Amino acid sequence: MLRGWLPQGKIAAVCFSIDDIHPGTSQDAYEAGGDLTRGALGRMLDLQRRHPELKLTLCVTPDWRLKSLVPDTHLLRRIPWLRERVHWTRLHPPGHFRLDRYPQLVSCLNGLERCEIVPHGLHHCHRGPRFAVEFQDESIDQCAAKVEQGLSIFSAAKVAFVPGYVPPAWNAPSALIAALGRCGFRFLCSARDLNTPIAPDAVTSMSGLAGVSLIYPEFVGQPRLVHLSCNFQATSPYERAFDILELGGVLHIKAHIFKAGGGHVMQDGLDADYCAYLDRLFCRIKQRFGDALWWPHLSEVAERARLAA
Ligand SMILES: [Zn+2]
Fold first, then answer.
1. Contacting residues for 50 by C-beta, under 8 A, at least 6 apart
2. Which of 9, 61, 129, 288 has a CA 20 to 30 Å removed from the CA of 294?
């Protein structure tokens, strides 16, 4: 277990990351930031106003294509050879939600205080049944090409971002991890585990990378990236957060920017109820731990972890 990554006087960290931000508005399947501060981003800012310590990591998809998160019923899905080679759900054409076509959203995101941005895939889709899992069996070169394509869209759109990566659906096969190291990334969040009991040596076994620390920063890949697991969401009891903080870990809370749309409901969608739940959680942990809590960006934890190592 890595030690010495917390700043002096701090006993644990609280991080919050939000996935799937893209230009979709309330007129589309998902309002995913496109309504700017009148929509989900506004709820997020209200929460930050109530808790000025809170910093956010916004996971933004450069060219989102999913119109729905449920499969359609096309007959091709039933043909064994074809089922892996066709799209299982309706997609927007490439470029429809490409960030450089939405300068207002980009300037809104770039201008948010106490928010950092990381890439969240390229299109957030894939052929075959695991249609939201963008990185699956690709080679290192293929992964690197997708990552670079996302970065060139960020660059064309002038998105200010930090060198961390949150792959869609938490899935980071070893080829992607190698590609991220090659592309200069410094940290990665590719595991979510809401079930494993909190303990110093607990490791992840739910979504994404298995066997990495559930509550502490850890190094993966070569060149090394700092890995930070996600361990809390709307359905998690407050006690889980207390346990992580008592053990000096990173409480890494996850939300998705939209709650429902395209025939699908997100358990951790950032609606008013989830914001109220988090508001109460933050009040309680501040009451209990006070100034001993550190409220960093994920990138700050990663950089402290690199220094400590
Ligand atoms: Zn996602």
1. 279, 282
2. 61
